[in-house]
Amino acid sequence: MRVVDTLSTCLEKCTKTIKETKCPRTNMTQRQDGEQTPLLNSNAHSTSSHTSGTDRSDTMWRSMSGNSLLNHRMTPRQRMIASNGSVANDLEALEYAYINESVGTLIEDPEATSAANEYTRIQEDRLLNVKYKSMDYDTCENKLFFEEETKKGYKFVLRKQLFRWVVMFFIGVFTGLVAAAIDIVIETVTSKKYLLIKDFVDKCVKVENDCLTVPLLIFCALNAASTFLAACLVVFVSPCAAGSGIPQIKCYLNGVIIPEVVRIKTLAAKAIGVAFSVIGGLAVGKEGPMIHSGAVIAAGISQGKSATFKCDFRILEYFRSDQEKRDFVSGGAAAGVAAAFGAPVGGVLFSLEEGASFWNQSLTWRILFASMTATFTLNVMLSWYHKVPWSLSYPGLISFGIFEEDNYLQYNGVELLFFVVMGCIGGLLGGLFNYINYKLSVLRIRHIYRRRNKLLEAVIVAMVTAASGYLLVYLSTDCESLGKDPTEHPVQMFCRDGEYNVMASLFFQTPEASVRSLFHDKTGTYHPLTLGIFALLYFLLATWTYGLQVPSGLFIPLLLTGAAWGRLCGIGLGYLLKDQESWLHIYPGKYALIGAAAMLGGVVRMTISLTVILMEATGSVSFGLPIMLVLMCSKWVGDLFNEGIYDIHVQLAGVPFLNWEASSLTYGVPASRVMSHPVVTLLPEEKVERIYSILTKYPHDGFPIVDNYIPDLAESATFGRFRGMILRSQLIYLLKSKAFKPQNGEEPVVGMVTRSDLARFRVEFTKGKLHLVELQLSKPLEPM
Amino acid sequence: MRVVDTLSTCLEKCTKTIKETKCPRTNMTQRQDGEQTPLLNSNAHSTSSHTSGTDRSDTMWRSMSGNSLLNHRMTPRQRMIASNGSVANDLEALEYAYINESVGTLIEDPEATSAANEYTRIQEDRLLNVKYKSMDYDTCENKLFFEEETKKGYKFVLRKQLFRWVVMFFIGVFTGLVAAAIDIVIETVTSKKYLLIKDFVDKCVKVENDCLTVPLLIFCALNAASTFLAACLVVFVSPCAAGSGIPQIKCYLNGVIIPEVVRIKTLAAKAIGVAFSVIGGLAVGKEGPMIHSGAVIAAGISQGKSATFKCDFRILEYFRSDQEKRDFVSGGAAAGVAAAFGAPVGGVLFSLEEGASFWNQSLTWRILFASMTATFTLNVMLSWYHKVPWSLSYPGLISFGIFEEDNYLQYNGVELLFFVVMGCIGGLLGGLFNYINYKLSVLRIRHIYRRRNKLLEAVIVAMVTAASGYLLVYLSTDCESLGKDPTEHPVQMFCRDGEYNVMASLFFQTPEASVRSLFHDKTGTYHPLTLGIFALLYFLLATWTYGLQVPSGLFIPLLLTGAAWGRLCGIGLGYLLKDQESWLHIYPGKYALIGAAAMLGGVVRMTISLTVILMEATGSVSFGLPIMLVLMCSKWVGDLFNEGIYDIHVQLAGVPFLNWEASSLTYGVPASRVMSHPVVTLLPEEKVERIYSILTKYPHDGFPIVDNYIPDLAESATFGRFRGMILRSQLIYLLKSKAFKPQNGEEPVVGMVTRSDLARFRVEFTKGKLHLVELQLSKPLEPM
């Protein structure tokens, strides 16, 4: 299929294809008789000698060696120890030899990092190479592979295609179920919690006037305990489950292996942890983690095995390649988005925008199928839970509610101007948010690396959040009469009978419910001061919280902050323009929606996917244009100051992420400024000794095969002609099989661009904005 | 930008990039002193010598030669005559020399086509090559280009980027305006027409009992006249404006030059023509043509010049390359979809699905922007026209109306089963539709090629449509009491006072309104027999109409047919399951929607874009899953029989379309089975004489540059090592400039895959399903 795939592009490309693959094929057809296929066929583009990608060889390898060396359960050091003895184990250990060596000195000892400034360029290289590896998203294009594929026949292709749909279906169903479970648990527990606090508060104020510290203490203790549990799950079970998981999924889809990111134990820590952290009253949402959860579910189902439980169901083995797994994971991420926001199309676009490196029509349709299934499953479960089966009004975890008021989401041409200004404000605030969070994250990387400190920080944040919220409620004098507000547990506090404390209605319910309140409460419900203080406090809390060692989504706190200041803007505009009321109706709820979009756009800087997600969550096609305008403005303004929050965290983790498009500033920068030199190359014919020593000495995962090159001439300008690429895993397999046969060809190699080259180049290029020192200081994607 | 673009993919690809572009760059850096840039630098991948693509050279060329030779206004023969005399003109004529020769013998004389069976393979090649050329979607990657780009600086890049947005904005606005104008004209005129007929009919029946032939004659005459005008516009002004235009836009986005497809005169013929053909009462819609209109608007605005009006505003000249134009045209097509269906996201996905060859995050966002602007503009215009300014309830030309009835779009798990079955029925009917339409189209190609016959056929179809509709209304005894139905002009016919003829309500209004009636009319409005007869008749009429020489959309007739039999299914199911009414509510309107989706999916076989378009048109996220299920089933069932209708017409027109993915059946088919042999190659150093003779003798638009090859050895297995590709336009430019300097290198070329190779291969491969004879018989994309 790949041959014709590559054919299906255009004339020029076709000629290239011929150059790369056809030529040897025709030669072979011409002299098919009496010649065995060379196992190390380094002819043209593809050099792999086993037939179906890296993962397959891993599987075979594992079954041969019969131990758990490769299932990533042990530390590299343990692996080294375990692998002493047999030759096979020795070879296998090559996969980790280098990691072991340098992780031991550079990473495993946090105290050593303070001396990082003195490391030379080579050591920087090693560090970058050691932490993250590239996945193998290229299909092998060689004779053996095509022969095997042809042998399998058309039926096999059809069956594989069918199972792709079946797997996507189950990904959707399970993602929907997990989302429903999380939602139901959080709803039930928080409702009980807030009811308890409310009763205490109201009793205290009414009956015994001065016992208000008791509910404060209970509130703080409950929140701290819940947050502590969430942090424990992250710190002790799966550090990868911290944060929203979106940066990790971005990296995964981009082709970087992040250890343990799609393990079942990560899913468990994430799903249970996010419930605890939302119950713990932190300024977090449960939406971001759903995306990560969906991705893990996808990886688990599609591979038919689990590394966490060390079991292998021996099904779906033909999906065990990096490429197939990536496709399913992107489906899972999309299903997660769909379940989180009730936005199946937005989910697909999210996968495409973040996945960045692939677009395939039929895959996209399958992804949409998974998303649809997820939102449908969630809808059925939640409708059933809320005792309105088949009303299907719960498509996502966060629903913006129905903007049903007459003319509610209509807007005048003049209002578009206000929206643009609010978009710019969102961009400014987003830039500020990202800056503060960046500085905090750097501080965290430098000073909070011990487990107990991480736990402590999480508990402190939880208590500060609880206490400051409580304090604001205590100090607030904003009262509203009951019956007008949709809040479940109105707290009276110092208000008169028949009234409730408005600040309490914002703090003493789940953030999702508060967002809905800000969108839908009638004009005049909130005092401007209440909104201002709330927005400021929540902004600061959200900045501090994102990056804690708990599973935490960023969308809800941003929506909440944005909705608060957006509503404030709406109230202000309504006041200023009250003379124009005959033709201009300013609904504060609409401005809350605009503010929420602006804030979100200013921080995360997503484009088309965020637009569609918000459109679907709002449920209005005609309000799409204002949302898009606002997102454009906030992104453009924010981009003047820094990158999106996810990109910042990806950079802080030192992941060599390859963006969709290079920045316009790198216009005209030649690859020669970026690439590594000298290049570690292999000849078509190599001695085992040299291969072994190269594998031991260099951490690279792939080596170009060249000819016309004398290896000892280190300072040469060119490294021979390029004949193909061989992967570390393939070399190890070949070493074991001992099957070689060289062939000739030529194409000069003068340098080599790896992910770490690009990362280093980026640091050089953005002079001073981001330092390699900080890259070195960071842990592998933990502190997100 | 392109250097770093290509870098941003992955490790292996990067090594390839180095191989292809970096090596010469480094070499050059190393010996920059005292060496002039070679103009014919055939080093590595890119061989273009002028700096910014083909189109630029055209522009320069045109201004130099100072005549209208290249603006495509003359026939090739005229051009040949006009170009006699100067050497420059002689060279220019090379672009058309071959076309002239073979078009003259093969195409321009329709009578000669009957002897086509005897043509040899080489002549087939020529035919395929002559009719369609590839566009140049690759960026030139050579030293001169990068130097010029670097010189322009960052500011230029920013300005270009800004103008991309500005142009997209205007594309959206103008597309929306055109859509609004078409809609308003059609609404006004048809309303008058049906009012006239209704008055006549009702008067005839009541007053003078037997004058019913008079309104019939008036009806037929009005429709025939209107259709005649539409057909005249197509036949005499722009043959390209026939049909929906979607196949043409598909081809254009796929990289095939279809003559005149994005001209302003095509837009005029299309926009005015579609109004006439809808007013003419044909079974056509105005939605498909909007997509074509949007594309033409995009091409017009982005290029800042018009070939139809022979004017050049000298603005936006940096967008005059095939690639930039393609990007804008895809934006225009998306804006057209958005305006047609009120589906901005569906529009983006349509562009992506049909464009097939590109996906770029920022481009996609711009396309969404254009779509949003288009739907917004249309909304504002139509709201204003309907005297409800700012209610913004007209996002598209066809609106499915609001499914507001309580629980209307809810569904039970059991119903999903019915939906699947209906999807399969849709697939069967779609396959049948495509088969009949294919046979009819072949008949048309063979027998209806004279202009007067084309006009005659259109008029006949219009009269048959009018007469059969009238006859059905006359025979129908299905009466309903007034007041229940939303139809504007209820016709009483033979019904009692206070009642109206239901069949007349389907025929005597625009098809869009009929679709809405079928979706929303209360249970029991239609007699099953009425629906059955209507569906059958409309199915046959739609099959016959699509392919006529009038601008005609296919969506509405399909929606209408599908809605009719879908509603029939709903009524049937409701009757069968009336005992289960306690838990299962069958709303016929919902089944009409499902039937419409099934019919549409079965005929056009679009996937994700159609799903999203229907979702957005329905306005319900939770009903997305059933729609998707139905579309999946209908596509899969339909694919068992034939291809989608657009693909069939693309094939009939003989366009060498490159699909997104090759069919699974071509698994393991090597390029060597497909490619041309021998290959016309050029050496790095060539005599002008040979280049001139090659350009005269061969129609190819690009030639591989090779070395190590002796040109006279025709039967060699390899044609030297590939060094790059040079385009016909570049060669002509070089011949004029007389600047050459050769360089060495190697990469063997053994064959060459062109679009026509693939088309021929496809014919060979699908044994008997589609014959090359028919390809040869067809006209360039006219008969769609």
TrEMBL record, chains A, B:
The chain crosses the membrane at residues 162-186, 216-246, 267-285, 328-351, 363-385, 416-435, 455-475, 526-547, 554-577, 589-608, 620-638. Its main location: membrane. Residues 675-747 form the CBS domain. InterPro entries: CBS_dom, CBS_dom_sf, Cl-channel/antiporter, Cl-channel_core, ClC. It is found in: Membrane. Residues 41-52 have a biased composition (Low complexity). GO terms for molecular function: chloride channel activity. GO terms for cellular component: lysosomal membrane. Coiled coil: none annotated. Residues 25-60 are annotated as: Disordered. SMART domains: CBS. Keywords: CBS domain, Chloride, Ion transport, Membrane, Repeat, Transmembrane, Transmembrane helix, Transport. Pfam families: CBS (PF00571), Voltage_CLC (PF00654). It is a multi-pass membrane protein. Signal peptide: none annotated. Belongs to the chloride channel (TC 2.A.49) family. This is Chloride channel protein.
